[in-house]
């Protein structure tokens, strides 16, 4: 059976209604599952021993519950603390040096971009899954160009994970030889990170995709959200294929194409669930006040609820009663004290006409919102 576009929007409306109804519970469950997965991945790193009570599943569940109750940046901090504890279990000196790097990275991103600290964990995870373009497409569409710095931080964290075995190989040394060993490891690690051609290449690709999607998304054009992520995906996919040829990127050609298309599909579906617009009913409105001219393009949302088809059997007596009720409504009332019929009992045309009269005009609504924002700015 062929599914038309109206059915798709009806399904979207039903899903959106269910999500709004159980939004609080879904957020808690998803956040709990995400942080539990992160803690399990941190403890399951190949270079860690995996021993200790802090690597047990009940402890991870308690940490995930704490991350749910606290802001998400605190959950990222808990994952970093868990990684530092596991590093110090293998090598005390390596754990201290690696911990200093993680703390500096966290403080920098959390201080400048507290709402986007989660990208520090999301970027390395997507790189390991070979879904390179998922985070840049999401950031360019929903976050903006400010997401470039957290994405670069996440890419640096991925580079740190590549040299982490060198930290874990550090052994206890004599006190006089300790400074030289620390300096050698730090210099080696920095060289491996900042001379890593793949890391630098990914930083430029991610930044370019975010900027391209964000700039295209600002153009006033129908379906520009979907066009912007499609163009960004094509540019990113071509760059990744070039990186595979020139730098030997650890991903096959088929995987690059398939996972790039999958990333585009996921972000497109997320945008569709976030907002579907009826461009055919778009309006351009212009009005002015004492200080400004306002030019507004208004695009209504598509919101189709579940269709309800009801078949009502009307007998002869019911039909006569409906006819009398309609004629009484059309004819002016002889008794002035007689109350008007309720809105549900009025004819359909009269109900729609009354609803249009009661509903405020679009331009008055927009003007009111502008006046409110202007008043708030003056108060600030």
UniProtKB/TrEMBL annotation:
Keywords in alphabetical order, please: Membrane, Transmembrane, Transmembrane helix
- Record flagged with keyword Membrane: yes
Query: What spans are recorded as compositionally biased (Basic and acidic residues)?
Result: 325-359, 368-380
Which parts pass through the membrane? 24-42, 62-85, 92-110, 141-161, 198-216, 223-247, 253-273
Q: Where is this region: Disordered?
A: 325-380
Q: What is this protein called?
A: Uncharacterized protein
